[in-house]
Amino acid sequence: MSEANPKQAAPSGAPPAEEQDRVEAQARRAVAAGQGPLARLGEYRHLGLVIALVLLAVVGLVTRPENFATTSNLVTILALASTIGVITVGMTFVIIGGGIDLSVGAIMALASVWATTLATQSYGPWVMVMCALLVGTGAGLINGFLIAYGRMVPFIATLAMLVAARGLAQRMSDRRTQLVQPDNNLLVELSTGRILGVPPLVFVFLAVVVVGWVVLNRTTFGRRTYAVGGNPEAARLAGINVRRHTVILYALSGLCCGIAAVLIMARTTTGSSTHGDLYELDAIAAVIIGGTLLTGGRGTIIGSILGLLIFTLITNLFILNGLNTSDQLIAKGLIIVVAVLLQRRSLETRT
Amino acid sequence: MSELLVMRGIVKQFPGVRALDGVDLEVRAGEVHCLLGQNGAGKSTLIKILAGAHLPDEGTISLAGEEIRPAGPTDAIRLGISTIYQELDLVDGLSVAENIFLGHEKASLGFTRRGETNAAARDLLARLGHGEIRPTTEVGRLSPAGKQVVSMARALSHDARLIVMDEPSAALAHDEVANLFRIIRELTAQGVAVVYISHRLEEIREIGDRVTVLKDGRTAAVGLPARDTPTSTIVSLMTGRNVEYVFPPRPDRAEPGPEVLRVENLSVPGVFANVSFSVRAGEIVGLAGLVGSGRSEIIEAVYGARKASGRVLLDGRPVGAGTDRAVRLGMGLAPEERKAQALLLDESVARNITLAGLGRYSRFGWLDRRRELADARAQIEALDIRPGDPRRPIKTLSGGNQQKAVLARWLIDGGSSSSGAPLRLLLLDEPTRGVDVGARAELYAVIRRLADQGIGVLLVSSEVPEVLGLADRVLVIREGEVVHEAQAGELDEHRVLDLVMAAHPATQEKEDAGE
């Protein structure tokens, strides 16, 4: 299908009327060609991820017909995905904005420890939640200020936070696992309770995804995030306060870690400095598989969540089939490589 | 002396532009041959052909009597042609010696022979009269002049017979230029030919042997004596370019509008100093000057994108640091590098247009996308951006239409929202770079129309005819200072070129002393 040649369409003086009509008709035809139902499906950019997810489900149904499609297994998958899922939403923002956050797992651990100290717990479950959110946001703000105003490379600033936050968590907890007290069982209800047969923490995850999607796609903040990540200089010269925006992005990621800390406390009934080990890698991998560019400026929340579900499903399949966790890691590594190679190819054919 | 390099009838066509249209150049061994011409005359294209970065479409090149066709940088270097670009291509983290032999390291089985490398580097540096630069020093620690010496040593390390220097004095402090000239004289005494590009006529008089002038991709004069040719002859060879510019007429205004912008003693140390001027509503003020004269930096400082001392007032209100404040007060900027500084290339035309004014579509942060799209459409229609599809990726548009989209960004109506201050002052840095001739006329008309609506315009352009044709008033900038101010009608191209290319202070002093 012939595209309208931009050179012809360029206004070199005033082109004759028929020439203009011809070019416009050409452009219309090009647009019309892309509107058939099949073409639309082909253009749906997460098609590959959805297919991969379906394939994995089929593998599950075939290998473990009696276990895979049970409610309890599906609930397990979703509950597992929720904690990292919340972190992945924050990570998607940071990466689209041109940065990276290596400290997410450590911040989550710190928030869980801080919220489960006996002193905090004495104020009840709501204060524990507030504490986790504040600690997460605070650590994110520190990241943001170091990067935006201290002009540190995001990789280094958040690496420092990773190490330091985990150290602080160890110090506060004396390297012991802190139990959620029976008085604060309301928190654990998030995991043990059932709404429509599903633990409430899954709804927390869904809410974060929905809010994240809306903010990214329907607000000025989201639009500016793409601009800041895609071309920071252009964003700055268009009057966007890039530094302030960057601080907010990392604070947002920190807040997500705080929410994730609440979820993990509910699931495990503990706060521990070992929570969330290597979560940063899983979150980054999910974002990359989802088609977000590490260089910033492009990406979607939906893609990241699909990427995460693929990862979680693989874990689940390996466990159900009693396979080695080492092989599971190898499979995940391969998935990352294949996903990125496929995306590169589809990008190249599109342009 | 015999001709070392002979280029005949070189033609190079780029999409939409015939950059070179039959250029001849003859360079003798042991001479300094100066290449002169205005921006867009074809100098850079010509030296890129010599350096092997472009292949000519037509024409022949011969070096020492043999016909050559450099098909890549390595090819050119192997033939003995080295090019020192304006922006030095050194690796800051490597040592002086490692930089000199980068790409042709002295090594056995992949292991570098450091002693030999350093010794060879020391020889080359001594040959250039710079034995004090240690081969083991990290290049990042050297001054610009030191880096220039290293670049030259690298050229020599390839046994260059011909060295092309693109504005080598631009990055140098005044006293360093004399040293550069000394090195060039030593090189030529050893039989090396130098092609020297500079806008500073006085430099050319001091160091050059012969001059070739380019205009509109053609050779206007070959081999003029550098010392004796009158300045007026050279300037008239460079001026009167045949490009057809169509400028909109200036309106007859009985009384000038109120002052929109006032700049007082604006300074950025080392770039420009004590710049003061004002722009009135409805007035287009042009800044004329060479690349590196400080004109773009002045615009950036006015916009709050660069730290500066002094005062900038918009409608009497001080503009501090930070582009967000400048935009809030009613400034807009179309920056010099459209792709790197203005556009989100992967995004649609509409999103590029609304980028700076997103606030006006948001209620508690929520975007009213329908209104956004409608406004983008209105701008596309008003400025006749083609193709007129707001959802099209902006990278598929021509340069002229991309530039219109950048202008459109600042023209969306204020509306009722908080951040939607109406535009008061538009800053344009090279608004027609990469825009073809037909689209230029349209852009000029748009800019004049905006001024007629009462917007103040501050314009920077390397093309003197553009500044003279479009602006009402012109400030001539040289070496970070305003050296002249006049109504555009009172100036001509000749006079402006004289002013911007006037003597380099250092060489001027020396000349005075010598005479």
UniProtKB/TrEMBL annotation, chain A:
GO terms for cellular component: plasma membrane. Keywords: Cell membrane, Membrane, Transmembrane, Transmembrane helix. The keyword Membrane applies. Residues 1-24 are annotated as: Disordered. Its main location: membrane. The chain crosses the membrane at residues 44-62, 74-96, 102-119, 126-146, 152-169, 195-216, 247-266, 301-320. It is a multi-pass membrane protein. It holds the Pfam family BPD_transp_2. InterPro entries: ABC_transp_permease. This is Ribose transport system permease protein. One of its GO terms (molecular function) is transmembrane transporter activity. It comes from Thermocatellispora tengchongensis.
TrEMBL record, chain B:
GO terms for molecular function: ATP binding; ATP hydrolysis activity. InterPro entries: AAA+_ATPase (IPR003593), ABC_carbohydrate_import_ATPase (IPR050107), ABC_transporter-like_ATP-bd (IPR003439), ABC_transporter-like_CS (IPR017871), P-loop_NTPase (IPR027417). Residues 5-241, 255-504 form the ABC transporter domain. Keywords: ATP-binding, Nucleotide-binding, Repeat, Transport. SMART domains: AAA (SM00382). This is Ribose transport system ATP-binding protein. The lineage of its organism: Bacteria, Bacillati, Actinomycetota, Actinomycetes, Streptosporangiales.
